[in-house]
Amino acid sequence: MSTHARGRRLAAGAVIAALAAGGTVGLAALPASAAPTPAFDYFADTIAGLRAGSVFESVTFERFESLLSSDGTYAFLLGGPEDPTTAATATEIDRVAQQYGVDAIYTFDPLLDGDSVDIRTFVTGVAGEAPGALYTRLVDGYLNKDTTPEFGAGTDPYLFIYDGDRTVGGVDDRIVASLGGTEDATTAATDEYRQQVAAVFEAVAVNGAARLDTQSQYDFFSNAVNSRHRAAYSTNLTAYGETIFTPADAEGFVLQSITYPELVDLLESDGDHTILFGGTWCHNTRAVIRDVNHKAAESGVQTVYVFDLRLDGWSGANAHIRDTNSSIAHLYGDLVQKHLPNLKTQYVLDGSAGQRVEYHPGGDTAAATATARKLQVPYLFEYDGSDTAAPITKNWIQDNGQAGYREYMTEWWWISDLQGPAKRPNQTDEQYEAGRATNLAFADEALAKLDEFFGIVPQPQLTAPAAPAAPTATAAGTDVTVTWTAPTSDGGSPVTGYSVTLGTATADTAAGATTHTFRGVPAGTHTVTVTAANAIGRSPASAAASVTIGGSQPGGGESPGTGNAAVTVTGDLRPGGEITVRGTGVASGSDSVRVELHSTPTTLGSTAAAADGTFTLRARIPAAVPAGAHSVVVFVDGVEVARASVTLSASGAASTGLASTGGDAGLLVAGTVSAALLLGVGTALVIRRRRGALGS
Predict the structure, then answer these.
(1) Which of 322, 335, 328 is nearest to 375 (CA)?
(2) DSSP-derived 3-state class of residue 335
């Protein structure tokens, strides 16, 4: 073994001294981590004796490179469960790291599949790149920018502290401390080895605590997604959108990037898992990844595991395992064959060659070629490995019945209702707008199906209320009483009040009010409207009604009456009784004749006038109406044209069947007769009202 630390003197710190003096006792008594134990823990699953919730956090090639290029000081472990040194030392490294308060050791496995795809020899297939190009990129670009290069000679250190900004005398010196060599279970379980590990953390310790930085999953995804989006559409960020993730997205972030061996272990583990196939390189994935995170968190999903089919996070050559042309396509084919037997895709196996993945099972080129369904990203699904026949329990995919399926591949600008691409020279305006409408509708469907996937019941969009119906305006002397009904829709937010406008005067009422009286209204014809308000805003104004104070209402063919409308009421004048209302002098053929019982306005019914201006309405007086004096009022197009005063007897009393005259000002009684005489001869009382005359 070998330990290197530069940039500070490795004094015999408290931890090293305790280790040297007390052996394993001090470390055995370390407190358990305060962090919650994850539901799925790749390292605890695959390394014997390692606790759940250890300091190790697996990173993909893309994230490893992201960390190396980031500001800060980070701890790294190179290796995976299949590596003998990693398997032998992980438990001891974890115990010492806890003593130093280390939150994360970012662990990168050079074997991208956890088995044989080694970045130190892997051929990317990218033109001009030699075997091992990915490894060379890491070594030359980051790891060997150091006064004492340690990588690339076949004896790479496996545990090291890295600071990309660190220099000595103006020369890069990024490896702060490191530990190399090989270990087995026997040598790792010694005080000497633990002291070597402690020396690495002591190189960045202050008062016994290692000063190390961390990169959250939000940090990684937001940086990668936003930077790639801006780079791709830098020519017009207004049309395409500048930022996808914002700092507000950091809270409750549930996306977690995983490696290929992690994915395999996940698919073989117990429980239900939510998995997203897609990469930050993919514009279609970037389009929805923010909403996937939001909706998953909203629904209570703890983690969405994100796997990139391009193992280097970028290239579309050999590293893209979902490609027949990839030398490692078996990683995809074997995965689908073993773990995703009920995969649903737009592409079909019997389609063109590009619609399937052809591979040699197990990577054995001597074996017969097999085929697998080819999914397109983003591909979101829910997985339960206990059902081996149909482990995919839910898909986010457009189901077109016999026509097949379609992955939701849309764009960020459609998701965000932005302008998007400009009209092409060969497009008409109509074609351009039709195309935009289609793309926007597909994006809306994608979001709606995300809600459905995560079991979210979409909340209706709150709006201002609908406009109330046209009010009724009734004049009595110089007072005008306006009556209205609540709007048919409150916009999803309760009505908080109404505004009633008569001419230039406006009165506000409480939410439960449906009537308001204006006093001292000047002579003339006035327009009346009502609006409703809620917490969102105010409705449009209702259709207008009109009312006239003094004189006569406007004449003309559009008037609701002839100027001499009259109404007769006969029948059983008591609560619950049946009556007949007949009218004359109404505008010929009017189809909006409404009859109400006042004082508290109660609609008795509506009808239409005949060609000669007459109408007949048979109605029942509501049983809840109290006995006593009332008025039967006729409206045409919301304007009062006539009324008759009636007295309702108690419900048990005998009825005369005749209307009572009352003493309404402005009402003309046909003939000079007393009420007693009329009752005696059974003559119907006819009450006429000149259009525009005002009653009480």
Answers:
(1) 322
(2) helix
